[in-house]
């Protein structure tokens, strides 16, 4: 249900996006279309900034393979779009393919659907090339149960059937490639390697997988370098500096192989720099650039050293080049026509020369993957429609889900290779291992296949590999040092052939961040103690009673505990001291908020309650009971946390350090603690906000409103940061959030009271409060008299008793205290002053139009809450 809700929200966003971009129109897409009984969709990055010179070859091969499908009395059509390698355009194109199911123009299901989604005419989609684009498309097509078969997306994330239930691919997952790279390193007996990745979906996950596999095989990783996601050296001094540092580290290292697991543009930049700096090493290429014709044709590429790589299975598709020569006849293919006429290398050439140019740039690895994708669809259709060479027993009317089910079951042989999908939607195909042969020095490198890596973990055809092994040992002998396998807590130093102990990494006391946090905590502790002394000295004064009397000492104690708990986040984590900081803070801050809430509740009930429910109110209006109940709930939650799933010290072994922290998993109790405190903060905020119109000499309500708002905002910002942050500064963020919360209460709620005690002593007297209240209600009275005059002028239509009218003139300001649902109210302005207002009911009936009059005079609405007319006021002092 959760997945469905998320998917529907995602679909709604896509529709909004499609409407936003509707000005581009459908004609803005470059599209190749051919009608048929069954439509196969296609998504290809034709126009994009790339080093590849053959971006239209995948599209051409898909059309060729579809035309080869031979189903009796059934025509297979296609609808292919140019995505430009962009997620947004790919999603818009996907919506076009699924347009029979929903109407992107109106964002509504078609009227004739009758609450049932129509089956899309496109039954299956081939594409996209890039993993990040395929992930977005896969989420969308899954809503319609349309199968998606990618020919080049290798991200390991796409193997999750829970997230991508309709996704399949004809290329292996990156997890097989990384295992193959490790096996290749083992064959050549290399003991130390360097990994260069990138901070994107392809490079980051691939680098992490390589590290895991190398660690399992006890192969040393000298260092791992992750390039930024948008790495480029064009007019970017930071990236140029990063590149220079990387080349310097490689040049000074003793690693025997450098693995570059990133996209081709990054690999090109690194190898250009390697040639420039004369860095001659052995490189291992990932599938993203191992067959790059541009990189292999770079000037002086031989100076960079030896290059091995992994690519998808390379097999030539029979008859495809002949098809390229005749592919422009009779089809509405704007993509190929645009490519043929606009490509720089084919301008000013005859049509035959242009076709020959296109045919000469066929990316065999991707082409074979697309060919297999179409063959899989054909086999699925044969199984579904029960076709033989002459007849299909079933018509072309079927659901996309039925075709998906049959595609997942296919098992056939193509070019002596068995084709089938496993439970993750990954194919049975493996990788080809290639070597950049530089035997011909006058031309670019020749990319030669030297072996195969199958998904079962075996490398075959080792004859060529053995020959290369002898050659490499002779030409490029390994470094004299060896990489020693070390125990946990140590790492190998290749130059010294010894194991060095990993350093401990945690938020220590000498860290600048720790010094700042500790200093702020000490300031908070001193300020809290000073405030407590001042409140004790002025305990009997009105201002201390205004903040709850003895409750303020509980509040200060809770704040003092919060400041002291800051120190539990600094230093090497221990179970008894450091890992209890967060649960104890939850208890302390709940105590603090409960004191504020009890004080606000006491004032609020003093203004609003009904004397008929006086006994019930007295039971509720007990501050100590309120504090005990509210804090007891948090105490029970924290005790349950500490007994069932307590935070505990944990360590994570990194390359050269061991990271120590307090592990909080699962986050259920932690989030529950924060949600409870945030809920209490919101209640305080609401009470304080409702009391903003009451006479408040000390601005208590306004200051509490500000402090609670700060608290809530701080923890709303903190939670996502904490859940995503890793490293030794995670506890520092926790400590900073606690300090900020404590200072918000101390500075906004309590500090102004201390200022009045010391510098505005004239306000800390009952006579100042009484004078302030008198002026406050005199101002209100003048407004109410004007409203009463308006009511008197309406006497022909509103019947108000004479006694009520007299009271409006003489005691109009006192009417403000009448509750809409009460007749007698005791109003507690401050703990020191109480006004008792008594209303007597009269038998006279007032006009029902009084309700209309109330709407016209909001400030006096309380005066007409009941038929009450006469009011008496008796001021008295009370404690």
TrEMBL record:
GO terms for cellular component: plasma membrane. Its main location: membrane. It is a multi-pass membrane protein. Residues 513-764 form the G-protein coupled receptors family 3 profile domain. It holds the Pfam family 7tm_3. GO terms for molecular function: G protein-coupled receptor activity. Residues 1-25 form the signal peptide. Keywords: Cell membrane, G-protein coupled receptor, Glycoprotein, Membrane, Receptor, Signal, Transducer, Transmembrane, Transmembrane helix. The chain crosses the membrane at residues 513-538, 550-570, 582-604, 624-643, 669-689, 701-725, 731-751. It is found in: Cell membrane. The keyword Signal applies. InterPro entries: ANF_lig-bd_rcpt, GPCR_3, GPCR_3_C, GPCR_3_Ca_sens_rcpt-rel, Peripla_BP_I. It comes from the Eukaryota. PANTHER family: CALCIUM-SENSING RECEPTOR-RELATED, G-PROTEIN COUPLED RECEPTORS FAMILY 3 PROFILE DOMAIN-CONTAINING PROTEIN. This is G-protein coupled receptors family 3 profile domain-containing protein. It comes from Astatotilapia calliptera (Eastern happy).
């Amino acid at each position: 249900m959760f997945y469905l809700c998320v998917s529907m929200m995602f679909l709604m966003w896509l529709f909004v996006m499609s409407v936003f971009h509707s000005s581009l129109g459908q004609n803005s897409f470059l599209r190749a279309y051919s009608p048929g009984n069954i439509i196969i969709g296609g998504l290809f990055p034709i126009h994009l900034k790339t080093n590849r010179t053959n971006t239209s070859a995948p599209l051409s091969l898909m059309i060729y393979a579809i035309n080869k499908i031979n189903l009796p009395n059934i025509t297979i059509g296609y609808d292919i779009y140019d995505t430009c390698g962009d997620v947004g355009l790919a999603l818009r194109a996907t919506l076009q393919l699924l347009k029979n199911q929903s109407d992107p123009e109106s964002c509504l299901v078609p009227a004739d659907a009758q609450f049932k989604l129509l089956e899309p005419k496109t039954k299956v989609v081939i594409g996209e090339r890039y993993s990040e684009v395929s992930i977005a498309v896969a989420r969308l097509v899954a809503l319609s149960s349309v199968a998606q078969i990618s020919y080049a997306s290798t991200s390991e994330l796409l193997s999750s059937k829970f997230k991508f239930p309709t996704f399949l691919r004809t290329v292996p997952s990156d997890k097989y490639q990384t295992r193959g790279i490790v096996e290749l390193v083992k064959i050549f007996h290399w003991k130390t390697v360097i990994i260069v990745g990138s901070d994107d979906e392809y490079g980051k996950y691939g680098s992490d997988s390589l590290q895991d596999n190398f660690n399992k095989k006890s192969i040393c990783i000298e260092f791992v370098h992750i390039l930024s996601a948008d790495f480029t050296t064009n007019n970017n001094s930071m990236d140029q500096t990063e590149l220079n540092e990387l080349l310097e580290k490689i040049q000074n290292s003793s690693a025997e192989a450098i693995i570059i697991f990133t996209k081709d543009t990054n690999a090109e930049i690194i190898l250009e720099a390697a040639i420039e700096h004369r860095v001659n090493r052995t490189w291992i290429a990932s599938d993203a650039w191992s067959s790059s014709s541009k990189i292999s044709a770079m000037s002086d590429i031989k100076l960079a050293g030896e290059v091995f790589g992994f690519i998808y299975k390379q097999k030539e598709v029979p008859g495809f080049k002949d098809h390229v020569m005749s592919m422009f006849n009779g089809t509405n293919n704007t993509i190929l026509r645009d490519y043929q006429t606009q490509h720089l290398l084919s301008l000013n050439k005859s049509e035959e020369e242009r076709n020959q140019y296109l045919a000469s740039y066929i990316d065999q690895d991707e082409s074979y993957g697309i060919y297999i994708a179409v063959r899989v669809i054909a086999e699925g259709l044969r199984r579904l429609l029960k076709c033989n060479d002459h007849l299909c027993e079933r018509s072309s009317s079927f659901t996309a889900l039925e075709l998906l089910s049959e595609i997942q079951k296919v098992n056939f042989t193509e070019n002596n290779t068995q084709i089938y999908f496993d439970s993750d939607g990954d194919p049975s195909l493996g990788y080809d291992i290639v070597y950049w042969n530089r035997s011909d020095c006058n031309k670019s490198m020749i990319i030669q296949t030297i072996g195969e890596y199958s998904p079962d973990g075996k490398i075959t055809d080792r004859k060529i590999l053995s020959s290369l092994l002898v050659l490499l040992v002779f030409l490029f002998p390994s470094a004299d040092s060896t990489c020693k396998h070390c125990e946990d807590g140590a790492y190998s130093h290749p130059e010294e052939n010894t194991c060095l102990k990993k350093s401990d990494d945690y938020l220590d006391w000498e860290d600048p961040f720790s010094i700042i946090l500790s200093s702020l905590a000490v300031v908070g502790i001193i300020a809290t103690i000073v405030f407590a002394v001042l409140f004790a000295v002025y305990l009997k004064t009105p201002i201390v009673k205004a903040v709850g009397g003895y409750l303020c000492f509980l509040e200060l104690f809770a704040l003092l505990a919060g400041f002291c708990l800051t120190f539990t986040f600094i230093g090497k984590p221990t179970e008894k001291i450091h890992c209890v900081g967060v649960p104890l803070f939850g208890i302390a801050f709940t105590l603090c908020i409960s004191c504020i809430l009890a004080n606000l509740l006491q004032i609020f009930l003093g203004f609003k309650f009904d004397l008929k429910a006086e006994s019930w109110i007295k039971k509720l209006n007990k501050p100590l009971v309120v504090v005990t109940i509210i804090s007891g709930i948090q105490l029970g939650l924290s005790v349950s946390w500490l007994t069932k799933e307590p935070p505990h010290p944990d360590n994570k072994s990194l390359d050269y350090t061991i990271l120590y922290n307090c592990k909080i998993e699962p986050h259920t109790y932690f989030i529950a603690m924060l949600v409870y405190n945030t809920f209490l903060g919101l209640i305080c905020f609401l009470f304080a906000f409702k009391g903003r119109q009451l006479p408040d000499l000390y601005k208590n309500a306004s200051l509490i409103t500000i402090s609670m708002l700060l608290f809530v905002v701080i923890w709303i910002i903190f939670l996502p940061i904490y859940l995503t942050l890793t490293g030794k500064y995670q506890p520092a963020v926790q400590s900073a959030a606690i300090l900020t919360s404590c200072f918000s209460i101390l500075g906004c709620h309590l500090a102004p009271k201390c200022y009045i005690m010391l510098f505005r002593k004239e306000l800390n007297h009952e006579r100042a409060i009484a004078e302030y209240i008198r002026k406050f209600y005199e101002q209100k009275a003048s407004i109410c008299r004007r409203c009463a005059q308006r009511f008197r002028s309406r006497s022909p239509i509103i019947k108000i008793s004479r006694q009520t009218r007299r009271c409006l003139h003489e005691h109009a300001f006192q009417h403000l205290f009448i509750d809409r649902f009460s007749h007698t109210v005791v109003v507690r302005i401050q703990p020191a002053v109480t006004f008792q207002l008594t209303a007597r009911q009269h038998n006279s009936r007032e006009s029902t139009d009084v309700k209309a009059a109330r709407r016209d005079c909001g400030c006096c609405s309380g005066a007409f809450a009941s038929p009450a007319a006469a009011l008496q006021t008796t001021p008295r002092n009370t404690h």
